[in-house]
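re: ur question from yesterday

yeah so i grabbed the chain u mentioned. its 417 aa long if i counted rite. heres the sequnce exactly as i have it in my notes:
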Amino acid sequence: MSSEGLKPENIVSQDVRNSVQTELQPENIVSQDVHDNVQTEPQQQDEYPSYASVVEICSEDLGEDIVVGEEIVIDGVIVPIRSHFSSTILRVFATVQIATIIFICLWFNRSKVAVHPFTLSTQTELNYRAYLREVVRNVSDTNLLDDPLSTQSLALDLFAINMQRLIDSSIIDVNDTEKIIERYAGIVISASFSAHGLNHYGHVRPSSAPPFAELCTLPHMVCSEDGTVIGVVIQNQKTTHFGGGTIPKEISVLRSLTHVVIYRSAIHGSIPKELAKLEHLKTIDIRENLITGEIPTEIGNLQSLEVLFLSKNSISNPIPSELGKATSLVQLDLSHNELVGTVPSQLTSLHHLNAISLEDNNKLTGDIDFLCRDEIKNVSTSEEEDFEGTYDLMNIGVHVDCAFNVPSLNCRCCDCT
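ran it thru and got these structure tokens back, copy pasting raw so excuse formatting
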């Protein structure tokens, strides 16, 4: 049989083929009721038409007067029609918001990210670190020296990495433990004031001299002409990477200090009692920080102390009676704290005192009339107190809270202006 004879139209008559096609139509296979139900059953994907579909439907039903970006009413329902431009603006705005939130979260948590900026890569450096740890173990707490991310431990790492260059440059003698301790303490003090610690030392092996080759080159150190560190000063660093840290007890190593000025720099934690080891100290100014805890009783042992400013912190507990032993004290500002109890009568021993402020300590009670004496308005301050213009001296007198010109504490000489 030829190929022409195998064609369907030659095998099955046209009538038969037409009949088969008619039978295979959906309406002939499925009953009419079922067929109608299938056709009228809403499709899931069309239940919520796309934005483009809404615009197309509305345009077809309501004509060409629709303005993209306006609202239309379909079966009593208000349907907003947004333009592509508006959608783009909203997407950009949302992206900017998300990016801003991520940036803020990273910024406020930047100091919590554990970063180890130094790596000891040779056995010599490891040996130097072990030696340095032994030298300074009586200066810092052992747990901090062994905590790889503490400022004290990182200071040892930085020191060990640079130790050989310091020796080769005759800056450090490996047997001069006093100088080693002093350099180590300087690093810890400068870094502790910052919430970032030593992470801002991005260079591990700088080509020039290490940043602590001389103490006077370290941040916050103030030196005399002969290179002696006489002041530690950090001011107005509340919102910078230099502030936000703590006052380390290693500050007591700098025995020649006469002034400690830590002003408005978001310093938190407590006041270290080791400050009392600085027998030449004349000024302690730690105003406007985030200090908590109590006033160390040991501060009363500072016989050279003339100015003690601790205002605008969160210092609590009673005023220690031991302050009465700091007989050189001229100005005392304890205002705007959370002090409690009575003002100790031992403060009458402060014969050079010409100004005391106790304002905004709502839980202080009692009689402070013992502070009223002729000397309190007649003693003059020395010229050395205003250390390089770092702080302002107080107004002379006794300053307390007042209500309707009446002192909150019993005091006939208190200033209520």
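noticed a couple things. Residues 15-108 form one domain. also Confidence is low (pLDDT under 50) at residues 44-68, 110-114, 202-207, 378-385.
anyway ttyl
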